[in-house]
Amino acid sequence: MKKTLLALAAALVLAACSKVNQENFLKIQEGMSEEQVIALLGRPTESNSVNVLGVSGTASRWEAGDTVITVRFVNGQVAFKSFDKAGQKAK
Fold first, then answer.
1. DSSP character at residue 33
2. pLDDT, position 69
3. How far, in Å, CA of 63 to CA of 67, rounded?
4. Whole-number pLDDT of residue 86
5. In the list 15, 33, 44, 51, which could disulfide-bond 60, CB 3.0-4.6 Å?
6. 8 Å CB contact between 79 and 72
7. What are the residues whose beta carbons fall under 8 Å from the beta carbon of 77, sequence distance 6 or more?
8. Region of residue 86 (phi > 0: left; psi between -120 and 50: alpha; otherwise: beta)
9. Strands of 77-85's sheet, edge to edge?
10. How many other C-beta atoms lie within 10 A of the C-beta of residue 83?
11. Is the dihedral of CA 9, 14, 63, 84 positive or negative?
């Protein structure tokens, strides 16, 4: 029982420390570099890139619990962002 409570407490502390939250989402501005967003949120959970006719695009997702931040970069700069948490969405 003691180990279970300790594990639960550790999980709650880690969740509270997550950088994937609405406060940090609101700090992401159009035109920010991919490096600036990674400095703010940490490494993305997943990321996919494509290069077409000299235009590069990357779609990156950061996930923590029931929260997901998606950012699309065009030529290394934020072009679109979305926030999704169970029960609330923001753009």
1. B
2. 98
3. 6
4. 82
5. 44
6. yes
7. 30, 31, 32, 33, 34
8. beta
9. 46-52, 55-64, 67-74, 77-85, 88-90
10. 20
11. positive
Per-residue pLDDT of the chain (91 residues; tens, 9 = 90+): 767 655 555 555 455 568 999 999 999 999 999 999 999 999 999 999 999 998 999 999 999 999 999 999 999 999 999 999 986 666 5
Burial readout 39-60 (b: 16 or more C-beta within 10 A, e: otherwise): eebeebeeeeeeeeeeeeebeb
Four-residue CA torsion sign, 54, 36, 23, 63: positive
> CA 32, CA 77: separation in Å to the nearest integer?
5
d(CA 91, CA 83): 6
3 three-state secondary structure: helix
3-state secondary structure of 79: strand
Place of tokens 């029982």: 1
